[in-house]
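Protocol step 4 of 6.
Sequence for Lipid II isoglutaminyl synthase (glutamine-hydrolyzing) subunit GatD (Syntrophomonas zehnderi OL-4) entered exactly as in the expression construct, tag removed. Do not edit the line below.
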Amino acid sequence: MESLVIAYMYPNLMNLYGDRGNMVCLEKRIGWYGHQCEVRTVNHNDRLDFQRIDMLFMGGGSDREQGLVYNDLLVKADKLMQEIEDGLPALFVCGAYQLLGTSYQSHEGTVLNGLGFFDLHTLGQKERLIGNILLESELEGELKTVVGFENHGGRTYFDDEQLKPFGTVVKGYGNNGEDGREGIRYKNLIGTYLHGPLLPKNPHVADFLIKAMAQRRGITLSEPLDDTIENFAHQQVKNRILAGK
Ligand code: GLN
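Step 5 output, structure tokens:
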């Protein structure tokens, strides 16, 4: 039985609105697929051995927390981008997603340079974009809905029209409440504003990441899981969002 290793970045600082639940979801699903999952926390000054990880996860955080992790993340950035280019599965939520761009300006005007992985920038406003959100998102050639919760002051804008969003907004705000885009998709990386946590109510997104991990490690997964409960929960949230609740 192989063990898949997930690097959980700065869990004590970057973890808002249930983001840690994404780790619980992946651990459970990988176990149901017949393999072990090890979630390895990575904090300030911890060495990140990319040879020993199969996925990287980083949750959301307030402007203050983003500032606290940025310099440490910068030290790890070059190797991280090489691994992402090489297909490392990665999930960056909200404040973590914002740091992947060229800059993040808080609503008070403080500017953080981003990691510069993608040509996008974020401008913070005092009025926050808050609420349940419904997307349409294409993963593995299939267009499916994705549900979640968003709470961010930052408005993220693509400065490269070639960038691909994680999804398009059906109900809610998304990247900036204007252009209908939500998040970013690049190879096996997903950046998104969706908290909730994202994965338990969107099992196909969890499986996209798990399949990418398994494929890179050359291991096979058992039969598809029975997601009756997860899909019921997804539909319940989707119906509530469509009804404007
Ligand atoms: N501090 C950032 C913002 O307000 C990110 C918030 C978050 O991670 N939920 O936009």
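Step 6, annotate. The helical segments are 21-32, 63-85, 95-98, 203-217, 228-242.
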